[in-house]
Amino acid sequence: MTGLPAAGKGTFKDLLLQELDARGISHTYLSLSDELRAEVRFRGLPVDRDVLREMGHQLRLKHGSDILSRRVLEHIALDLRQGMRHSVVVIDAIRNPAEVHALRESLGDEFVLVAIEAPVDIIVERIRARARQGDVLNDDALARSVLEAEMGLNEPEHGHNIADCIAMANVRFENSGSLDDLGEAVRAFVEDQVVPNL
C-alpha cells in the first residue's frame, strides 16, 4: 500500500485484515515504516516523524533506494523457509518508486500495489484533527509543505516520492467518503483481487 499521510492507509489496512479474517484467508502484515522504527530503536534514537524520515533517507542513500523493500522481502523469504506460507502478505508504507520496483521484480504478478488517496484539503483536515497540542502539523501551511515533500517535491532520488508510487499503482481507492464506503470498497477489492487468486 502507498498513499499520503492521513489518506487512510491505516484504516484501509485494518478493514482489509478484518475482511481477510472474516473469510478465513491466511495473511501477514509487514510495514516499511516498521523496518525504519526497528533501525531507529537499534540506534537508540527517538522514534518520531523527523528521525524516521531522516533514517529512511540515510538508509536509501547508503544501501540503495529499495533497501526497505529488500528487508521486507527477507521477512517473506524467512517465513517461506520456515514453512509459513500466507495467502496474502500486506506490505504497507511504500514511499519510493525503487521500493515498488523491487517488490514487483521479486513478487511478479502476485504483487498488487494499492494506492489510498484523498483530496489534499481533506488530508489537511484529518492531520489537524489528530494533531496534538503544539504539533507543527496543526498549522495548515506546514501540513501542506510536509505533504508536498512526501509527494516528492524537491526530494532527492532516495527520498520520499509518494506521487510517483501512486502513479504506479494497480488499484487506486478514493477515500474521501464514509467509513462504510471504504469498507465496501475493501470487500469488493478482496472479492475481485484476492479470492480469484487463492
CATH hierarchy: architecture: 3-Layer(aba) Sandwich
Total discrete domains: 1
User: How many β-strands, per DSSP?
Assistant: 4
Q: Mind telling me the C-alpha Rg?
A: 17 Å
Counting DSSP H or I runs of 4 or more residues, the number of helices is 9
Overall helicity: 55-70%
Major sheet characteristics: 2 strands, parallel
What spatial form do the alpha-carbon principal axes imply? globular
- Ranges where pLDDT stays below 50 over 5 or more residues in a row are none
CATH topology: Rossmann fold
Quickly give the structural class. mainly alpha
Element order, helices and strands?
HEHHHEHEHHHEH
Strand order of the largest sheet: 1-2
Characterize the structure shown.
With 198 residues, the protein is mainly α. The protein has a single domain (9-186), classed as Rossmann fold (3-Layer(aba) Sandwich), CATH 3.40.50. The chain has 9 helices and 4 strands. The strands form 2 sheets. It has a two-stranded parallel sheet with strand order 1-2. It has a two-stranded parallel sheet with strand order 3-4. Helix 1 packs across helix 9 (179-194) and helix 2 packs across helix 3. The longest helix has 16 residues, at 179-194.
